Amino acid sequence: MVHVVAGRTRTPLVRGNARALVPVVVLAAILAATTCPGVAAAAWRPTPGQVFAEQLASQRMITELVSNRVASLYIGKSHRHGASVLHAPINVTMRDGNRVSGWLVLRRYRYRWYFHTITAGGQAGDISPAAVPEGISSAALNYCISSQATNQWFAKGVRYGYFRQLDVVGVTNNWNTATVQFVLSGGTRGRRNARMTCVSQTSSAGKQYWFMTGLR
Amino acid sequence: MNNRSNITLSLIAGGLALVVCCAVAGWLLLQRAGDSGKASAGGRTVIVFASTDDDGAAVAGVVALVAEGGTKVTFPDPLTEVSIPGTSYDRLRDAYSFGGAAGVGAALGMAPTDAWVDVAEAEWVAALAAAPSEGASGPPGIGVELPRPVDAFDGRRLVSFPKGASVVRPADVPLLLRGAAYLPVDARSGVAKDVGTAVMRAMAERSGAGATTNLSAEDVAALWRELRAP
After folding, report:
1. Contact by Cβ (8 Å): A86, A159
2. Is the ipTM of this complex over 0.85?
3. Nearest by CB to A139, which of B156, B160, B182?
4. Which of A89, B29, B116, B167 would bridge B101 by S-S if both were Cys, CB 3.0 to 4.6 A apart?
């Protein structure tokens, strides 16, 4: 069918019976955008506000780590959603014997992987927006972002199962820092040592926040 | 006649003695008034190089006790337990918030008239940056030896000081002092001595410019001259 509009002819993009499928395709796209992290992550960028919200969602696990209450983490088989999101289930064994299951999510931006969240329970990657409180500087959050350039080997290891088990050897506290020492094992590669220095800042309201940086 | 002469002579002698006594007493009083606020460097001198703690409060970063005219120097641990009257704080470094270098001296049991020298962080860092390098051709900085890595985050950057021997840049020395507070006491003392020696020498190179003190100009100049001597 050809439409004539003011002397011009227009040929519809979808012809004949296929036009009936248009609403179905549109509905599928909407569902994909709202449920598939790979599609939803297309707009993700590691900005200070975004990173704060993610690390806020991860505060429980990060605090347990820097307080040396975590004995080990087991990283299960990872799933990649599109080009930019990596989910992996984790099982955390606490030093008091309790076990917690959760998710480790990494996100990719401009060819670099970044920590997104490490959470207990819940859905992978579910976070709520959060305003950065007064006293938490964008300089500190930007440092968290830039320091994760060293994470690429870790992201690759999670993706391809180079290691599964992270044993926490110890935690060393310093000025506004806590360095978590790990031994990585249980995958297709040999054992290796690693460490992550988490940094902290206290808001004007007196609440201390811990932030993950890069794994080396 | 002789008796009258003797009495007269006695009165004159007594009067003269009284005058001399008054003159001596007056001189002594004037000397004490002239000396008020001016300590003597002949005893101990406390030199405090200021820093800040986790909460941003001013604290004593490095404390140097100088004795015997500058020939004997020790570096008390800033985390030494002390009594700071009227407060609940009990660490030597916190005495600085309540009285500056004089407060630190008091916490160490020194008298109010003992000598003190107070150097703000910006001044001693500038002195370090301007001081000659320790090595013949090495970068400016302080050589330290750490038993384990020390990390310090200042809200903008993370500085990691490695285990073992290294040279710390002048701008990073304040961060090293903050991180070193988490080391065991033996290691802390080593850092305090290394940093304190270098900072004192750097300040002596500029004759203590930028420091405040209760010493007279002559005494403080003599002190820095002695500290500059190899």
Report:
1. yes
2. no
3. B156
4. B116
